């Protein structure tokens, strides 16, 4: 019997501060959630594997700090990345604008074959929603990227997000 194929995927998380990037990673890797997640300084590195039909995808995840002063470091993390998750907070319009600027930068300067996924996080806060699902979906379609709404808090769509990136990434490799 041959060993299962393992594909390594460098993945970077980008987006404004406090949209929930670290919480998404901690939910995915450790299945935990903290209301008072420690802020990321510079960037944090974690790994997690996902079994897809075709292979096991081992994600090498770079969780970047959202603060403006670290913005110039971002190319170090997205360069050579097979995938990027650009996160916004569905209750924060500015964070959606921030996400759009990250998508633009990735499309200009990142790997042209990288999978880009736009994640509208904090989907549990429906009553505070400022960004319609449809608006973000349309933006994603126009820009040829994936879009999904997640809640790190309620564990909604977090595994699906990574699974879909892995499956799609393998299909275009
Ligand atoms: P980052 O700066 O983008 O890495 O954001 P963090 O992961 O540090 O999260 C910022 C704040 O948002 C923390 O207080 C989290 O508890 C909260 N948070 C993160 N994800 C969610 C979510 O899905 N729902 C809600 N309601 N709060 C969240």
UniProtKB/TrEMBL annotation:
Nucleotide-binding as UniProt keyword: yes
Name under which the protein is recorded: Ras-related protein Rab-5C
Transmembrane regions listed in the UniProt entry: none
Species of origin: Pelagomonas calceolata
Keyword tags: Nucleotide-binding
GO molecular function: GTP binding; GTPase activity
């Amino acid at each position: 019997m041959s060993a299962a194929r393992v594909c390594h995927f460098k993945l970077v998380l980008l987006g404004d501060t406090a949209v929930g990037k670290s919480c998404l990673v901690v939910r995915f890797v450790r299945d935990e959630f903290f209301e008072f997640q420690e802020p990321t300084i510079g960037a944090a590195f974690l790994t997690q594997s996902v079994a897809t039909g075709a292979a096991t995808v081992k994600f090498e995840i770079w969780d970047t700090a959202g603060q403006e002063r670290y913005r110039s470091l971002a190319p170090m993390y997205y360069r050579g990345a097979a995938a990027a998750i650009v996160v916004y907070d569905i209750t924060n319009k500015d964070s959606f604008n921030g996400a759009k600027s990250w998508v633009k930068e990735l499309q200009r300067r990142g790997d042209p074959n990288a999978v880009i996924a736009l994640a509208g996080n904090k989907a549990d806060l429906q009553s505070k929603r400022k960004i319609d699902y449809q608006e973000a979906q349309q933006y994603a379609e126009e820009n040829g990227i994936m879009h999904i709404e997640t809640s790190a808090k309620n564990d909604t769509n977090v595994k699906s997000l990574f699974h879909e990136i892995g499956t799609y990434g393998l299909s275009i490799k």
